[in-house]
């Protein structure tokens, strides 16, 4: 199963006025385990690490979503 998220839906991208791009996540339809990710965006390198670790450690889409939200919240407080 694939999940596509345009950057217009990403709060940090909106705040930075960098909404051109997309996140594409590929996960097992039954377990939600992340199998791969594509990030096409100006600062893709800042977030692709989370997807890379999620694949390596067998995390799910939910795990990754919670990780990215935590990163964004920390960035706002910084």
UniProtKB/TrEMBL annotation:
Alphabetically sorted, this entry's keywords are: NAD
Q: Does the keyword Cell inner membrane apply?
A: no
| Entry's Gene Ontology molecular function annotations | dihydrolipoyl dehydrogenase (NADH) activity; flavin adenine dinucleotide binding
Specify the domain of life of the species encoding this protein.
Bacteria
NAD in keyword set: yes
One GO process term, biological-process aspect:
2-oxoglutarate metabolic process
Taking every annotated instance into account, which residue ranges of this chain make up the domain Pyridine nucleotide-disulphide oxidoreductase dimerisation?
5-69
Residue ranges the record marks as coiled coil: none
- Signal peptide range equals none
Q: Which family does it belong to?
A: Belongs to the class-I pyridine nucleotide-disulfide oxidoreductase family.
UniProt name for this protein: Mercuric reductase
Q: Which organism is it from?
A: Anoxybacillus sp. FB5
